[in-house]
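Suppose you are handed a protein chain with no further information: no name, no annotation, nothing but its sequence. What can you learn? This example shows the usual starting point.
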Amino acid sequence: MIHPKYATAPEHYVRAFLILQKDLQELFDFIEPADNNLSCYSYRIHSLLIRTCIEVEANCKAILQENGYARAGDWNMGDYKKIDKTHFLSAYAVKVPTWSGSREMWVPFAAWANHGSLPWYKAYNATKHDRHTEFPNATFERLIEAICGLLVLLSAQFETNDFSPGPTLIALDWPADGMKSGIGSFFRVRFPQNWSMALRYDFDWQNLRGEEDPFQNVDYENIA
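A reasonable first move is to predict its three-dimensional structure. Written in structure tokens, the prediction is:
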């Protein structure tokens, strides 16, 4: 993951997420992370939702660009949904700590598993283009879904690597919940367990690492 050909400037995508995570934690000082507050909406929530979804788009676009995807025209969720076939985004779950109620576990890309659209992205798109009418859709629930979605994208690319410039203290994942501390050590992430043997591969990194570009592109052009 730290090889320069693996991804272009990955630390900037991680840093953008960490800033959003910090702003979300500050929001928790005023809106308790709880089922009872899912329908809350405000300008601060709307602002964080917009910023988060812009980062989701930036990450999706980067993945496709890195792999040579070149469909003409503006890319949209129809293009970005292809990434679910290679990264299993719809199989990731994120736990929000200190949540009050039954919604502590979030599967932000679950709709893609059933060929549906993402409610949080629809809310972002609607409020971006018509805030006056759609503003009540920028809810606390949609924001949490979006933040978890961004973390899933980063986890699918970089696991728990935050690309810190120096040594990183590794904390033990002591809760017996089958999850890992996500990037930023706030959320917990359950990684997919449904990788078939046909999708797994073995390689000799000691030999590959010396090549100018040891990574093979994914042919997203031929993924429906």
